[in-house]
Amino acid sequence: MKESFISESNALNNFSEKVRTIIWVMALLGSTFTSGNLWRARGQSAPLQTFDVASIKLAGSDPNLWSSLKRSGGRISWTTNRLTLVLYAYSLKPFQLAGVARENVFFAIDAETDPSATDQQVRLMFRQLLAERFKFVAHRDTR
Asked: β-pairing, 70-72 with 75-80?
């Protein structure tokens, strides 16, 4: 009987973990989750928010290389480290992020997108860029 309880408890923990994951994904996607449902309702997959063209080059380790994000029309240029890029892409404050080490390695990012792209759309594009180029995976956790 004890073994049955343990397996049921494990099943419940697995179910709880899946529910937490679903909630995390919904929170992470925010407003895009609603538009994604709209696309699926029409029988189509939701379009990924990606830059038309993006280049990431290692810029070096000198902190003086850092620059603020610059947008001019559809062109974006930014020299930053991965930590700052993650903070921007996910709209986080530094105290909300764990597991990303501080580093003095800077990357020069040049990208092009539709000039009418909103700030939120650009953030989603940076999330996709992090996933594609840096193999970055995020999850939310309550502490």
From this structure: antiparallel
* Sheet containing 106-112: order of strands: 53-60, 106-112, 75-80, 70-72
- In this structure, the number of other CB atoms found within 10 A of the CB of residue 21 comes to 12
Q: What is the pTM of this model?
A: 0.64
- Rounded to the nearest 10 degrees, the angle between the axes of helix 31-41 and helix 2-29 is 100
* Residue-wise pLDDT tens digits, 29-83: 443 333 333 333 444 444 678 899 999 999 998 888 888 899 999 999 999 998 8
Q: Which residues of 34-49 are buried (b: 16+ CB within 10 A; e: fewer)?
A: eeeeeeeeeeeeeeeb
Which string of DSSP letters, residue by residue, matches the chain? -HHHHHHHHHHHHHHHHHHHHHHHHHHHHTHHHHHHHHHHHTTSPPPP---SEEEEEEEES-GGG----EEETTEEEEEE-HHHHHHHHTT--GGG--S------EEEEEEE--TT--HHHHHHHHHHHHHHHH---------
Neighbours of 18 (CB within 10 A): 10
